[in-house]
Design a protein that fits this description.
heterodimer; A: mainly alpha; 7 helices; B: about 80% helix; globular; cell membrane (chain A)
């Protein structure tokens, strides 16, 4: 593998981690969704680059799904939902930005140390992709636990799925069945979430998951 | 002959799909409930026919072997009895207006899609396909848990969805790592995800990568098994969804995730340099057992109580498989089957009790054996069985787990027995009030279907007294396969 192709793949995957970090400190819903759209665009570029260097044409489909569905359709849809629900104000973050960023740095370090150590025998590009992918997954989890708003939890979950797609495309020759299934499951997941958001809206006039927290089943 | 057997596999997958399509289009709920029962019965027959026909050669996607037949038949059987129970349960829900006819259309279609997902997870020979199937089954149950659309149901479904998705995402990452480990040995492409190919070559895989993969898979699928500390979704989902769904969640869906863990455990066992998976599973199993046993004491909601009991029993099962060896594996398999049958019977009973009394609050349900003898005694028998008293099948399997632990690691037996006794105490404590206390609440006669619950309980006690030798031989064979 020549240096340039490797560097570009590295740049794109690293960029994805960087965008994940950007999500951590967005305190407005619209901004968060815009950053997610950027995340999806970088993912699409990264997958397309993998498709090009691996000469695996089916990966272009995955890239197109990421671009059209995750970078355009979902952000536009979420914008609409937010407007309709009238919640385009601040996000209530459960944890402050400083500690969140520190936790994020810790998680990325952890995944680098872990993945680079155990994959010493694997192809260098796949190794780095896996390490980046695990970082993105963990950062996605972090977004989910530090937010209390249902929409931002959903965004966190989708960024986590982006990390999975990066891992799947980095694994050379992974069968198409998995990529389609990942894209497909995101679609289903989104429908599920959409349904839930509307139901939650219907019942409580709020999508703040914290508002649901009073119920623990033991206070009847 | 092979073609016929392939048809049996196709049947257990196609019948639910076709039924789901029909049910989605059928507005009449009585007819739909009947069709749901019929489709489940057909699936059960197709599953049973797997025993007698020759098995197809394992392909790139599908596989039938001695291990998964047990799971498939159990799945189809409980799926069938639950559909019978569901028919009488939903009639009451419709009368009281908790569900509407259009809800039911959705509910029935989802029920069959869930059965499809679970069956697909069992017969898949491809770890990617298995993941897709588990995810499908999860999503359908999420939708059904939220079907009442009450405050509590939505919170439960949301929590289940978020935790379940995170679990499933970790499992996918683990799956990708397994592929990465296999790819240099098996070569690129679909073959590196085919389980039978993987296990044949597992000895040459990079052990470090496999280890990390297993940790992710155990955490991911373990979330779905309901292992502590990843169990938070389970009590809510059981308590707030329709009771037939609680029955299939406890009786079947937990098994699906467990099956996935077992498959990967076998994979690691085939690689001599990989870590021993036993200690990890033993730790998680014991933690779940002891934690759930303590939590049982504080429950005030009857469905939540039995949901925690499911966590406890999954803990015992995972512990048994973690111990490994022919005896402990045998005990784990038996316990899994017995737990599925007993717990779904208990949920059938509890579902009708909650309908009759109009509440799930334990303090408001009293003296059932006087007001509703058939339901009350079914609950007594069910709790006696689930608490592990002789002569139930659970007594036998728990006895086997404990005795094999004493023989090999006496120190581990202490927390194990402690947890089992603790849970035993909690369940009997709750049972006395509910079954024998001063009658309280509605005494209206119950319109219940007793056949599913009593047939399950009869099977559990029959197994405790006499296990047919062919079944024992089969389980022993599978236990050796599990290593």
């Amino acid at each position: 593998m020549n240096g340039l192709t490797f560097d570009i793949a590295h740049l794109l995957a690293g960029g994805l981690v960087l965008v994940s970090f950007m999500m951590l400190y967005q305190d407005r819903l619209f901004a968060l969704i815009n950053v997610f759209a950027v995340h999806a665009i970088v993912l699409a570029l990264s997958v397309a680059w993998q498709a090009y260097i691996q000469d695996a044409h089916h990966l272009y489909v995955t890239a197109a799904i990421a671009l059209i569905f995750k970078a355009i359709v979902i952000p536009v849809g979420l914008h609409r939902i937010i407007q309709r629900l009238g919640i385009h104000r601040d996000i209530e973050t459960a944890v402050g930005i400083g500690p969140t960023m520190l936790a994020g740095i810790g998680l990325v370090t952890l995944s680098m140390v872990l993945m680079l150590r155990v994959t010493s025998g694997a192809d260098p590009l796949a190794r780095e992709d896996l390490a980046f992918a695990l970082s993105i997954i963990l950062l996605g989890l972090l977004v989910m636990v530090t937010r209390r708003n249902a929409v931002s939890q959903v965004v966190g979950f989708m960024s986590l799925e982006n990390g999975l797609v990066l891992a799947a495309t980095g694994a050379k020759g992974m069968p198409l069945v998995v990529e389609i299934s990942v894209a497909f499951s995101i679609l289903i997941a989104f429908i599920v979430i959409g349904v839930f958001l509307f139901r939650i809206r219907e019942r409580f006039d709020s999508v703040d998951v914290g508002a649901l927290d009073d119920y623990r089943g033991e206070h009847r | 002959m092979t073609a016929f057997s392939l048809d049996a596999v196709a049947a257990i997958l196609l019948i639910p799909v076709v039924a789901a399509a029909l049910l989605a289009a059928l507005p009449n709920y009585r007819l739909a409930a009947g069709l749901n029962v019929a489709a489940s019965l057909l699936t059960l027959l197709a599953a049973l026919s797997l025993f007698v026909t020759d098995r197809p050669q394992p392909g790139q996607y599908l596989l039938v072997d001695d291990l998964n037949i047990v799971f498939i038949v159990l799945n189809a059987f409980v799926g069938f009895t639950t559909s019978v129970f569901s028919a009488s349960y939903i009639a009451h829900e419709l009368d009281t207006g908790r569900l509407t006819a259009s809800n039911l259309r959705f509910y029935h279609a989802m029920y069959q899609i869930m059965m499809f997902g679970m069956n697909l997870a069992f017969v898949s020979n491809n770890i990617g396909l298995m993941w897709v199937a588990v995810e499908l089954a999860t999503l359908t149950t999420v939708l059904m848990v939220g079907i009442y659309r009450t405050h509590e149901a939505l919170e439960a479904a949301w929590k289940y969805f978020i935790l379940g998705s995170v679990g499933i995402a970790l499992a996918l990452f683990g799956t990708i790592l397994v592929y990465m480990a296999a790819q240099p040995v098996v070569g690129e492409g679909t073959n590196a995800m085919v389980w039978t190919v993987l296990i044949a070559h597992a000895a040459h895989f990079d052990p470090a990568l496999l280890n990390v993969a297993f940790v992710f898979l155990l955490l991911g699928y373990g979330t779905k098994v309901g292992l502590a500390p990843l169990h938070a979704w389970l009590p809510d989902a059981h308590a707030e969804g329709p009771t037939p769904i609680s029955a299939v969640l406890s009786g079947l869906l937990l098994n699906v995730a467990l099956y996935a863990v077992l498959r990967f455990k076998m994979l690691l066992a085939a690689s001599p340099e990989a870590i021993a998976t036993g200690p990890l599973m033993i730790t998680m199993g014991l933690t779940s057992l002891v934690f759930a046993a303590f939590m049982l004491y504080r429950r005030r909601d009857i469905k939540r109580l039995f949901a925690y009991s499911s966590i406890e029993h999954m803990g015992i099962i995972v512990f048994a498989f973690g111990m490994g060896g022919p005896l402990a594996n045998f005990a784990g398999l038996l316990h899994m089957v017995m737990h599925s049958l007993t717990k779904s019977a208990i949920f059938f009973t509890v579902g009708h009790i909650a309908q009759v009394k109009g509440t799930q609050n334990i303090t408001e349900i009293r003296g059932l054996t006087e007001t509703h003898p058939a339901l009350g005694w079914a609950l007594v028998i069910g709790v006696v069985a689930i608490a592990g008293l002789p002569p139930s099948g659970i007594f036998m399997s728990e006895f086997l787990v404990v005795s094999s632990t004493f023989a090999r690691h006496p120190f581990l037996a202490v927390p194990l027995v402690f947890g089992i006794l603790l849970a035993f105490g909690a369940l009997l404590l709750r049972l006395t009030g509910v079954a024998f206390g001063e009658p309280r609440g509605s005494t209206a006669p119950a319109e219940a279907s007793y056949i599913p619950m009593y047939s399950h309980l009869a099977l559990v006690f029959a197994a405790g007294i006499y296990l047919p030798p062919p079944l024992v031989a089969w389980f022993q064979h599978v236990a050796i396969l599990l290593g």
